Amino acid sequence: MVYLMRRSRNELGNTLMVCLSWRFTGWFAGEASPASAARYRPRATYGCYTLSAMDAYLDIETTGLSPSMDAITVVGICRDTPEGPELRQLVGSDICRDSVAAALSGVTTLYTYNGIRFDAVFLESQLDYALPSSITHRDLMYDCWSRRLYGGLKSVEQHLGIAREVQGVSGRQAVELWWRYVRRGDDAALETLLAYNREDVLNLKTLRERLRVT
């Protein structure tokens, strides 16, 4: 595993720039209404991949649920590169349109959970970043709905027996961890938040495999 990190904080301690990158030889093992599943189901794209095809998995953390009022705190992206899976986490002021585009460079299919109605909306609202036409967005939440698996990512993980190392952290607690870091300089809170996001991203890979989505 190769671990690279750069971090800086301004004098007030309220601005953060972090870029974390991991390379793995293996993966961690591993809340929406079902009423309109068919209505929201995205169009699937099938066909033969070229040699340059690359899959990626994305999950973001935010300060709330409003794309117009709340902020993105962490963007986690894992790409399946020829050298192996590569995870990048962009944090705080390091999150911008260019950094997200760079992290998705070469990606042809992007997997998310509720990404169509949440992650992608935040990225476009906050960063003016929309996925290019060269990237197919596959929202695994709708694949779960088609198999009668409803609820948030963690509920689906529990139903399928996908394990987590970070226990006791919810979406609301992830927001609290962020503010603990920003307001108190609590580095341990930041590390917990990054570990939480890391499992969100990596478990998308496990979820896709359990669902046998190709």
Q: In terms of topology, how is this protein built?
A:
Elements: E1 3-9, E2 16-23, H1 37-40, E3 55-62, E4 72-81, E5 84-92, H2 97-103, E6 109-112, H3 115-127, E7 136-139, H4 140-145, H5 153-160, H6 171-184, H7 187-211
Parallel strand pairs: 3-6, 6-7
Antiparallel strand pairs: 1-2, 2-5, 3-4, 4-5
In total, how many beta strands?
A: 7
Stretches where pLDDT is under 50 for at least 5 consecutive residues are 1-19, 21-51
Strand content: 15-25%
Radius of gyration: 17 Å
Order of helices and strands: EEHEEEHEHEHHHH
- Main-sheet strand order equals 1-2-5-4-3-6-7
Separation of the first and last Cα atoms: 27 Å
Helix/strand-derived class?
A: alpha/beta
Largest sheet: 7 strands, mixed
Number of helices: 7
Q: Determine the fraction of residues in helical runs and give it as a percent range.
A: 25-40%
- What gross morphology would you assign? globular
Average pLDDT, rounded to a whole number, is: 82
